[in-house]
Here is the input.
Amino acid sequence: QAQLVESGGGLVQAGGSLRLSCAASGRIFGSYAMGWFRQAPGKEREFVAAFSRGGSSHDYADSVKGRFTISRDIAKNTMYLQMNSLKPEDTGVYYCAAGARTWSGPYYNYRNYDYWGQGTQVTVSS
Here is the structure.
């Protein structure tokens, strides 16, 4: 069973940067696809970025392409989300997730993920 812990959220002005971390228990990167999602108040959880199982490919939501970068450090069992040029509409609770399906992914639908972290709040002020 995977355990995920996010960190790195905070309050930042528009145009600023934050780096989120997701520390994973166990050796899950080879077995699970890993992703970042976010949820704003009153809205559904939405896809931000994800790796396929094994990390051979990754993808981003159109709204964050060119501004966010997903990466991982296998030795540290940690996945990152570098967020630059932040906008007020990026505000929300950010979650990391792990999932394993019959295809390698990346998975864009949050229903394909089995394990979730507790979330970290990101607030971007205008």
Notes: The CA atoms of residues 19 and 82 lie 4 Å apart. The radius of gyration is 13 Å. The mean pLDDT is 94. The chain has no helices and eleven strands.
